[in-house]
Amino acid sequence: MKRVSIFGATGSIGQNTIDLIARAPQDYQVVALTGGSNITRLAADARALGAEIAVTAHEDLRAPLMQALEGSGVEVAAGPAALLEAASRPADWIMSAIVGAAGLAPGLKAIEQGGTLALANKESLVTAGPLVLETARRHGTTLLPVDSEHSAVFQALRGEEMSAVERIVITASGGAFRDWTREQMARATPDEAAKHPNWDMGQRITIDSASMFNKALEIIETKEFFGCAPDQIEVLVHPESLVHALVGFTDGALMAHVGSSDMRHAIGYALHWPERRALPVERLDLARVGQLNFRAPDEARYPALRLAREVMAAGGLTGAVFNAAKERALDGFLDGRIGFLQMAEVVEEVLTRLSSECGLTNAALTLDTVAQTDQIARKTADTIMAERQA
Ligand code: NAD
Ligand code: MG
């Protein structure tokens, strides 16, 4: 039996992970499940899977969670410290699927155990890539990517040497506003941005897909995870979302990963790795699909892509600034403080202000410096948004 824990169990990735585990209950012993405010979901899954412990990130939801799990034998805990404690409980396989920078600390704690960490929380690599990789190396932990593009690259690279890789191409659907003009995008509402043409994902990543901030994070994630140079990474708009990534080798060959837009591909690959096992995903009928389309991304429409390149060039704590400013700007868009296109403007302004103020590039990367930088970037984003409203 594989001992598994799922951080962010109530979210989109968490629920897809539970779907796979619940199909073969005899193979898994569930250690910890964690969630946020959806206590009902968390309690139901913890009961059904017989989890050892259920943790909500919110202290004030401890009592309702205890009530929901009364008589189940499932231990209950709440708050950030409880998340860390749950991450330090022995498990063979841990899914890191909390959304945002909040996933970094529990993810690092889980890495210290030395098992396998399935990494959906791309923000960990964007904010603290070298720290995450170094911690994994020190503890002999296997990191497996759970992003459709990065799982695709990982699979295309199997059995290959990185020295034979010329380029890595990650695809982008183009999100909800693929065919909208800048004028239309300027007036877009959160509801419109949260409708993805191909993927069913959490609200935040779906809006990040429409602004291409998700792809911006993924470019950085690619650089960190695979250790390639920024100019080896390309983004290709592919409206069908069936080719997830391509790896180009020195002999000119391109290896593409093709599959339905279902995150259970990437999750299942990480769950069973190094084996490949049957998964309950749709089999593609390419004759019926008929056409696959590709086009270059328009960087003028999507400044997030340019910003990602600037962040990689600067390095150090710049990724933590970028991610935190992006998270805050997204909050600002969601609560109506700024428009859709202003998210990139706010992020760029935060990067400009902070890069001249503090030595982001040379500072040591630790959990503390990343957390401090994250806080400063959030405050700066709030200040900029308030100035714009005034
Ligand atoms: P989601 O919003 O659906 O779920 C997020 C989970 O994190 C929930 O369980 C929520 O309760 C928990 N959470 C939120 N804030 C928290 C906090 N402050 N502390 C502790 N827990 C908190 O998000 P998602 O779409 O499942 O995405 C999860 C991660 O996976 C993100 O990093 C995202 O970029 C990445 N990812 C998602 C997909 C996808 O298809 N959804 C694809 C690739 C990568
Ligand atoms: Mg992705």
From TrEMBL:
Example GO biological process: isopentenyl diphosphate biosynthetic process, methylerythritol 4-phosphate pathway involved in terpenoid biosynthetic process
The UniProt record lists the EC number as: 1.1.1.267
| UniProt domain DXP reductoisomerase C-terminal: residue ranges | 259-379
Pfam assignment, any one: DXP_reductoisom
Residue ranges annotated for the 1-deoxy-D-xylulose 5-phosphate reductoisomerase N-terminal domain, each copy included: 4-129
Q: Where does Mn(2+) bind?
A: D147, E149, E218
The residues that the entry says bind NADPH are T10, G11, S12, I13, G36, N38, N121, E123, G202
Q: What class of enzyme is it?
A: oxidoreductase
Q: Which UniProt keywords apply?
A: Isomerase, Isoprene biosynthesis, Magnesium, Manganese, Metal-binding, NADP, Oxidoreductase
Sequence ranges assigned to domain 1-deoxy-D-xylulose 5-phosphate reductoisomerase C-terminal in this UniProt record: 143-226
The pathway noted for it is: Isoprenoid biosynthesis; isopentenyl diphosphate biosynthesis via DXP pathway; isopentenyl diphosphate from 1-deoxy-D-xylulose 5-phosphate: step 1/6
Could you state a single Gene Ontology molecular function term?
manganese ion binding
**Which InterPro entries does this one have?**
DXP_reductoisomerase, DXP_reductoisomerase_C, DXP_reductoisomerase_N, DXPR_C, DXPR_C_sf, NAD(P)-bd_dom_sf
The cofactor named in the record is: Mg(2+); Mn(2+)
Residues annotated as binding 1-deoxy-D-xylulose 5-phosphate:
K122, S148, E149, S173, H196, S209, N214, K215, E218
Q: Which reaction does it catalyse?
A: 2-C-methyl-D-erythritol 4-phosphate + NADP(+) = 1-deoxy-D-xylulose 5-phosphate + NADPH + H(+)
Q: What is the annotated role of this protein in its UniProt record?
A: Catalyzes the NADPH-dependent rearrangement and reduction of 1-deoxy-D-xylulose-5-phosphate (DXP) to 2-C-methyl-D-erythritol 4-phosphate (MEP).
Similarity section: Belongs to the DXR family.
Name under which the protein is recorded: 1-deoxy-D-xylulose 5-phosphate reductoisomerase
